[in-house]
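Hello support,

Our group uses your service weekly, and this is the first time we've seen a run hang past the timeout. The protein is Radical SAM protein. I'm not sure whether the cause is the sequence or the server load. Input pasted verbatim:
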Amino acid sequence: MLFLMKNFIYLPVSNAIIKVNPLVRDVLNLMKENNDKRAILKRLSICYKEEEITTAIREIEDFNEKLNLFDFERPYFTRAIFPYSTQEIYHNLNKRLSHMILDITWDCNFACKYCKYSGIYRGERVNTEIYMSKEIIEKALLFLKNHSSESERLSIGFYGGEPLLAFENIKYAVFLAEKIFTSKEIRFSLTTNGSLLLRKEIRRFLREHDFSVNVSIDGPKEIHDRYRVNRLGRPTFNFILRGLRAFKQESPEYFMKKVGYIVTLTPPFNLDLVMDFLNEWDCKTDGPIFVSLVDPYETDFYKRFSTEVLASFDKQLDELIEESLKKDIPEGKINEFLHQFLYKDLFIYHNSPKGNLSKELFIGGFCIPGYDRTFVTPDGSIYPCERVHYHLKIGDIFDGFNFKRIKEIIEEVEHLKNENCLECPIARLCNICYTSIYRSGKLRKDLFYTACKSRRRHWEKVLKIYARIKDTYPDFFALWENKKEGHYV
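Update from on-call engineer: The timeout came from a worker crash unrelated to the input. Re-ran successfully.
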C-alpha cells in the first residue's frame, strides 16, 4: 500500500484510495513493516489507549479477512498478462485497423536543435531528402483497405520530417483515399512545423479536406527561436505566426476547431511564460495542446545544463500545480497546460476500475503493435506507431504483418512485467510503452528501469493530488463529468 497525504492510503490490488483515522493509519503503517500485535501496542501506547489500539487491530484484521483490502501479502499480483488473446490480436490486425500514419518524407526545412532526427540521438535516423513514392502510398492505402473491413471510421495522418514538403504526395494520398474508401468516414491529420502554412494553396487544401492540423510552437518568440531554427540557423517564429494568422483570418471557425499545438519544453525552463503565452496569444484555439519534454533517452542533450537548471522544471511545475489547486479547481476548471502533464492522469485514475479486482495484472501501456496506429515508412515498412518508429519493425505493406515477431514482442513484455512489476504498488496504473524500452529492435532493461522510476514518481504524485482534491473538493470529479464540454483555462 502507499501512504498518501494526511490519512489517505492507496491500495494497489483494489486500485482504491481510502481515508482512515490517524490511529488506523499508524497501525497499518506498522503492520506493513511486519510488526506483530505486541510490537504495535508497545509502539503506539504512548499516543493511544491500549483498548483503542486493540480494537483498531481487530477491525483491520476482520476487514482484511473478508475483503483482503490492505495488501499485506506480497507480491500484490499473481501474474502479469497481456489483455488480448492471440485470436483477438490476429483479428484486430486483419479486420479492424482504423488509423494509418504515412511517414511521407524524411526531409525537413528546419534544423531544430533538440530534434530526434538531428543527429544528436544514438541509433536514430537523420533528416534527409527521402520521400514516399506514389506507389508506396497506393499500396499502403490498399493495405489499410484490406485490413479494415470491420472499421466504420478511418483516420489517415501525415508525418515527417516536414510533411508539407511533400504536399503533392499528400494531395495524391487524400484524393486516392477518398476514392478507395467511399463507404467509410475518413479523417485526415497532419503534424507540421507550420512554416509552409504561408502558402495559400496549402491552407485551402487543408481546410477543404477538414484536416486536423497540429503545429509545433514552443512558446513566445524568445523561447521558440532558441531551438527551433531553419537550416541556416535562423529563427522561425515570425514565419509560423504569419501563416497561422492568415489561416485564422481566412477561416476563423475551422481554425478554432481544427488547429492544435505541439509544445516542447526546453531548458532553461520558464513554464509561467510558456503557459501565459498559450493562454493569451492571438492564435489560441479550442484544439488540443500537446506538451512534452525533450526525450532524455540515448542523447547527451541535457548534459550541457546544470543540475539546478534541470531541477527547476519540477520546482516550477509544482508551483503551477499548487496555484491551480488553489485557484482553478475550486472554480471547477482544469488548466490545459497542466492537463497534459498531470491532470489527464487524474481522470484516467478516476475512471479506472476499483474494488474487488482480479489479482492478475492486465498489462497497461502496451498496445497491440500496429493496431492503434499503423505507421508506414517511405520504404513500406510497418512499425507500431510514430513514437516507436524505426526501432521495432513488425512487417511491411507487401507481405503483411509479421505475426511471429509481434508474438515475440508481446512475450518479451509479459516476461519483463512478470519479472519486475508484481510487487509494484502502481502497477495497475503504469503506462510505460514500447517507445521507452525498445532500441534497434531489442528490449533494453536499462531503459525500462529508468522509465519505471520516472513513472512511479509521476503516479505517486498523481495519487496524492487526487486524494487532496477529493478531500478538499469531494464533488469536483462528479461535477466535471456532468459538464457537456471541458472548461479549460
